[in-house]
Amino acid sequence: MNGEVVLDALVGIFLVAGGLLSLVAGVGLVRLPDVLSRMHAATKPQVLGVLLILLALAVSLRNGADLAALALIGGLQLTTAPLAAQMIARAAYRTGRIHRESLDADELAGQRIGPPDDHPDQDRA
């Protein structure tokens, strides 16, 4: 078995996995009920899918300039997607387009919504 065959198989696996994660993100945007859930689906699997596709390209190309460009693209994805999700969540919260019953706590309003027994990380007296 040749090293090129192994690398091509690895590239194929990364491309399929990245494509499937991007597909899951798209399905999540359509199927999930509220803004906060959609925001989660739009960022986490999508960013991981893009990073896997970039990794497949890096393994396939193996050129210094190409690797630098791919690293820049990956870094920008890791930086901008969480910031965009934060801005979407804040805009949804401020316009009242979230389901308050789906929140455990409302840090922006300083209110606790769920029952205290649901949160094991709190100190118990």
What does this structure look like?
With 125 residues, the chain is mainly α. The protein has one domain (3-118). 70% of the residues lie in helices and 3% in strands. It contains three helices and two strands, in the order αααββ. The protein has a two-stranded antiparallel ribbon. Helix 2 (35-61) runs antiparallel to helix 3 (64-94). It is elongated and about 60 Å long. The N and C termini lie far apart (63 Å). The model has no long low-confidence stretch (mean pLDDT 86).
**How many individual domains?**
1
| Element order: H for helix, E for strand | HHHEE
Q: How many β-strand stretches?
A: 2
The coarse silhouette is elongated
Strand order of the largest sheet: 1-2
**What's the helical proportion of residues?**
55-70%
* Residue fraction in strands: under 5%
Largest sheet: 2 strands, antiparallel
Low-pLDDT runs of 5+ residues are none
Per DSSP, the total helix count is 3
Rounded to an integer, what's the Rg over CA atoms? Answer: 20 Å
* Spatial separation of the terminal alpha carbons: 63 Å
Helix/strand class: mainly alpha
Mean pLDDT: 86
Short précis:
The protein is mainly alpha-helical and 125 residues long. The chain is built from three helices and two strands, in the order αααββ.
